[in-house]
Amino acid sequence: MDESIFMSLDKDIVRNIANLARIEVLEDEIDSIVKELSNILQFVEQLSEVNTDDIIPMTVVADMKLPLRADVVTDGNCRDKVLINAPESFDGFFLVPKVVE
Amino acid sequence: MTHVIQGNTGDWELVVGIEVHAQIISKSKLFSGSATNFGADPNTQVSLIDVAFPGMLPVINEHCIEQAIRTGLALKAKINLTSVFARKNYFYADLPQGYQISQYEYPIVGNGNVVIDMHDGSTRVIGIERLHLEQDAGKSLHDQHHSKSFIDLNRSGIALMEIVSKPDIRSSEEAINYVTKLCLILQYIGVCNGNMSEGSIRCDVNVSVRKHNEAYRTRAEIKNINSIRFMSQAIDYEARRQIDAYERGLQIRQETRLFDPKNGETRSMRSKENANDYRYFPDPDLLPLTLTQKYVDAIKEKLPELPDERKKRFIDNYKLSSYDACLLVAEQSVADFFESVAKGRDPKMVCNWMMGDFASAMKRMTRTIDNPPVSADNLGELIDLIYKNTISGHIAKEVFLTMIETGKTPTEIVIEKELKQVTDSDVIEVSVDSILESNTNKVIEYFNGKDKLFGFFVGQVMKATNGKINPVILNEILKKRLESLKVLFNEDNDLL
Q: Is the domain B425-492 a CATH 1.10.10.410 member?
């Protein structure tokens, strides 16, 4: 069994994951997070012990299909509600710190 | 006929793959019931789902699924009966969810192809890698304020199809023809309006270069190109940049670049350097999309005629050249106009009129086929008048201009201006005789071998009759008349 996935989890990977997820992680927290995440991966990794060749992944327990909607306008037109949590808005727009390439 | 780019170290080959993002025409969004109209007031077509409030769940729009399948079928592609929606995670101000719902490992459409028509009349097949459904992002306006960006989420969640080509494109001309043909197909099936300026179609272009018969080298991705001309410029610039780098012993990094239309250059998007880790995973809010073959077949049954099929029918049924057929089908409404005029008439004649006087009038008046200079009925009537020998082709050009000016029907104009062609042989004979009689010197010159004078006689008769004589009948009578005179001339060496 390939154990490389969780064994390779190091401080740099944790820093990168935290950055991608926009979660601030202090330097003295990193060691414990490496350990916690490794534990989680190891736990999940147990599934690799089962041979799943030729088995279709089970996506839902109940016999359900993806519900579909007709192409009808039923929503929107509620700008006040949409903007209610915006720290800053103007003239119907959200205002955010300038992000420009 | 392989396209090559010359470098200092020899010839290079261009390798291009294109991702086209096409907005699906729908009343409501892919996963919410908000409207999709272009140009609405900011944030008025936004629901709490689009803005990703807690507890909101996406429900898919069936029409959008059907349109993706129709597009797949039009691209002669494999429709996958099971496909899966995945989250593509990244942070940006115009993406409130923090992820885009897209499809990753299991797209709804697999391998297909697009046949492109080249300038020299040849065709090439460009492979389609896949087509998947995804959400559009909102819009950021950066020029409204010195330190703030304005965000409008009206576009957020509108259904997009990402159509990914194989790296089969070998020149910027092929790239232009590919995108043009793809847009045409989308318009024919009514899935997307193909409007690049409104952003209904956007392209990302993957460009690399290589030596002949080499494996693919590292590619650069040029993002968010919104015109076909810019795409072609971006490809040519990028190819040259990469060749220059290799020839100076440098390497090309796999990176995302932006095209700057102001100076025609591409530049690195440094912010994207670490962002390409999208951590895709299946969206737990959405079950896999399963289709039945019966459903797909029923959609296929109702698919309209596609550009390639229409072109073939124009060649087979109307006996048009491949060139003419290509021009006509390149715009759906032009082809429709042609067919409505050509019904029961000589197709080649209709085609010539459309490509000739009609097209130049349209250009001169900056009209489109949806607001034509003359109606299909009137153009057809004009062609009938020529066909029935009521007027000559020459007079018809004059009538056509009067039709545009006055809006009258060709028949009205012909009656009013007394342009009806003279086909009565007796009348024509009289005109011919009078011209020949008053030009005896010229007639003798003609008999002495100056054949060109035949045209002179035709011109004189036409002039005397305001061009109303049927040229075919005139030619016959004139020829006959001259022949009988020649017999006399040879006997007497004198004209009467």
A: yes
